[in-house]
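Lay summary. Proteins are chains of building blocks that fold into shapes, and those shapes determine what they do. In this project we predict the shape from the chain. Here is one chain we studied, written as its sequence of building blocks.
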Amino acid sequence: MVNYWRTAWCRHLLAVSMALFCLLHNIMDVHARPANMSSLKDKNNPTSKEENEILPPDHLNGMKLEMDGHINKDFHQEVFLGKEMEEFEEDSEPRRNRNKLIDIFSKVDFNKDKSVSAKEMQRWIVEKTEEHFQEAVRENKMSFHAVDPDGDGHVTWDEYRVKFLASKGFNKKEMADKIKNSEELKVDEETQEVLESLKDRWFQADNPPADQLLNEEEFLSFLHPEHSKGMLKYMVKEIVRDLDQDSDKKLTLSEFISLPMGTVENQQAQDIDDDWVRERKKEFEEVIDGNHDGIVTMEELQEYMDPMNEYNALNEAKQMIAVADENQNHNLELEEILKYSEYFTGSKLMDYARNVHEEF
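And here is the predicted shape, written in a compact code that computers can read:
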């Protein structure tokens, strides 16, 4: 009799657990479709060098939004520091970082009047964004070589697909034979979903006349949509599709702030953070929604995300200055930029006020 009740109790617990699992799955499924390739990356198994070479990155330096629609937390630092961003690490020696920041200030201060205007900051932001662009071009050369080992200057979708599947652990020869013979690949559902997303992106990067081949320049657009107006538009459509709950191809404030915090693959058991919602609300109302009608169109989002839009760069310059402009003169002095170093560089300088003028 004891065994009977024990068995019955275990079955009850199993039924309850299954019900809870299904409930959680249904809740998560609302935003389960990944807008980028992050779902394919197991946190316990970091992506291989080969996979990093050929997969479009989730994060694009100098872009305001990530590929999955999240706000880029490092955007201010990326457009202020450019390729020097890695030099400002949290554990770096504060005096060294301060001297480096003083040097940057002197470069941004183009007319050498010991203050930085919005126009000077705009010019600097455009210059630093271009640095990120050039770095992407250099990385693309290596990535393209990885998918074009015969050096004929172009890659077919099937060649790329074989390379991608091999990077995921599938047998390269077996996959190549199956693709050549138009046989079913029999990959897992997650891999198939990412393949379909990559294929759509691949054909978007194939400039007219479409030949289903990508040259090095087109492959750059495939990996880095910020380098192409057409691919930037495609990226915007993807983000809107993932956030647009009523399928009207526009975003309301509630849609923009409803995306759960964190990457797509680890949503469960997370509450939407109040600060995160407040940040997205402010960005939507004050920056993205250009005409303040409560609706963000694809055109508005594309203009907002265009990294080489000089009007955006000027607005960004004004916002950055406003954060640290304690004397309210609409310019930045050295003392101000050092005091707010964490905002500009991600590194807090504890001794920013010490002998500033002497060192400068």
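What the prediction tells us: DSSP finds 17 helices and four strands in the chain.
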